[in-house]
Structures are given as C-alpha cells and as structure tokens.
Amino acid sequence: MSSSTSTSQILSSANSGSPRQIPTIRLENIYKTYDLGEIQVPALRGVSLEIYPGEFVAVMGASGSGKSTLMNIVGCLDRPTKGSYLLDGKDVSALTRDELAAIRSHKIGFVFQQFNLLPRTSALENVELPTIYAGVPVDERARRAEEALKRVGLAERAGHFPSQLSGGQQQRVAIARALVNNPSLLLADEPTGNLDSRTSVEIMEILQKLNDQHGLTVVIVTHEPDIAQYAKRALEFRDGKLRRDTMIQNRLIASDVLPTLPAIGADDDGADVSSDAAIRSNGSNPAD
Questions:
Q1: 3-state secondary structure at position 57
Q2: DSSP secondary-structure letter at 178?
Q3: Closest listed residue to residue 85, CA positions, set 165, 11, 27
C-alpha cells in the first residue's frame, strides 16, 4: 500500500460519520500539459489526492516538480488538461472564467511570497479590496477589514502604507486580505520565502492559530523542510507526480518555538529580510 493511499484512508476514517466528511479538495487523476509551440511539457501526471476540512498541508518539491501548477489548479487559477477537481464536493474542472472567479472570491484566500500589496493604499484599504470584487456592501467592507487585521495582530497599523511596514507586517496584511471574505480554504505560496527566521515562525504561528483555533483549511507551498514541520501533513512532488503523502511526526508548534529564538530590536518586530532569508529566497525558483 502506498503512503498516499494509507494517509488518505486514515483521513477518510477519521472523518467518517462526521457532517464534514466531504473533502475540501479532491483531485482525481489530474494531468496538466503546457503547449510550447511544437513541444508539450507535462507539469502534472496523474495526481490524485484528498484534503479534508481543518487540515494543514505542506506541498513540497524541487523547482519543476509540479507543486506550483498544482496550487494554481487548486486555487482555480488554471484548469487541468485531464481529470477532475472537486472543491467542497462540486466539480469545478469545467466551470467558466466567471464562475471560477466567483469561487475564488468567496471560497479561497490567497497569500503570496511577494505580498502583492498596493503601495499607495493603506493596510486597511488593501485588505478591503477582495470585498469589493465579492460585492460586499460598502458599510460592511471596513468592518470586515478591521476584524481581519485584528486577527493577525495589526489593528493599530490599519492606516499605514506598505512602505511604512516591515516585511513581516506586510505579510500579515496579506494574510488579513486573504481572510476578509471568510474563505473555507487558505492557499499560501512560499509565505515565508522573503522573511528572516524569526518572522517566518511568527507567520507560521498565525497560520497555525487560524487552523487550530478557527478550523481553517490551510495549504502552503514551501521549499523549506523546517517550515513544513509546522503543518500536519506533507505532500512531496517530483516530476509531476505525488511521490510521498505523510503525516507530520513531532509537529513543531510555533508558539513554543518563538521563545527559543533570539529577539530582534524593539523598533523592528523581526520582519525585515535578513541576509540569510535573502539567500534562501534567491536560491529558489518560483517558476515550478
């Protein structure tokens, strides 16, 4: 029995009899091939997996392994060439662009390595943006954004612009933006890739709290094995295939790790990019 099968069976058994037994994500024999002129490049080759509500999953693999393609499909940013993708029990593989956009607005929150904040817009206004696309009433937008910033510990920085925030604070704003429409799934692509070691753990603490205390399903892509140890389950990809699917043993708890790390100056909450973080970031290729 493969590790992927055994893990799936464990999760299915744990969820049996529960009203939440339908997987949040179900991929069935997913293929993705890119046409580059006369050349066809296979990115995913027959991937099948299930992720249940309340899981925290780390997706790992070298550049070119297919993990970013997988995240694009899971995030409804791309379509599989073949196979089916069920999100909360609904097949979204063949939906129109508008239908996929609606799903992204209401069901999925995105966090990116580069933060992707609008530079001339305050933290509060950056967080409000998804509510505009989702058609949330004007008087509700600010309330939601303020609540989301509070959840990531940045309520007092609502009026600050990105240039006035450290890297870690900008990533917290990005997480708040991902949460503002109350998604059932949070996807984070290398969320600690541009951060120093301590701030990376602070970001993982936020993600763990969202998962453990609020039941949010979290899926992250990471090149870093130490970051993957904060998840509950690890998926390892190579050459477009899921090679290993394992439950994390001796999971790291960020709130326990933080007191063991050296503190950074009181005026800098540990969010600036250190030389070590810069080396890690430059050493990875996001195009995979």
A1: strand
A2: H
A3: 27
pTM of this structure: 0.84
Compute the half-sphere exposure of residue 162: CA atoms within 13 Å on the CB side of its CA.
Answer: 17
Distance from C-alpha of 233 to C-alpha of 230, rounded to nearest angstrom: 9
Q: Who contacts 63 (Cβ-Cβ below 8 Å, separation ≥6)?
A: 284, 285, 287, 288
**Residue given tokens 């195009």 in the structure block:** 287
Is residue 4 packed enough to be buried (19+ CB in 10 Å), middle (13-18) or exposed (0-12)? buried
Write the Ramachandran bin of 267: left for phi over 0, alpha for psi from -120 to 50, otherwise beta: alpha
Q: Among 169, 226, 176, which residue's Cα sits nearest to residue 199?
A: 169
In CATH, the number for domain 3-282 is 3.40.50.300
| pLDDT 10s digits, 163-172 | 999 999 999 9
Q: What is the identity of the amino acid at 185?
A: L
Whether the CB-CB separation of 59 and 228 falls below 8 Å is answered with: no
* Amino acid, single-letter form, for residue 216: L
Look at the block and give the residue holding tokens 């993990």: 67
Going by C-alpha positions, the residue among 71, 31, 35 that lies closest to residue 286 is 71
What does the pLDDT look like over 158-193, one tens digit per residue? 999 999 999 999 999 999 999 999 999 999 999 998
Q: Checking DSSP bridges between strand 90-91 and strand 82-87, what pairing results, if any?
A: antiparallel
Q: Where are the domains of the chain?
A: 3-282
Distance CA 125, CA 196 (A): 26
Closest CA to 193 of 166, 224, 169: 224
Beta strands, E only, 171-212: 185-189
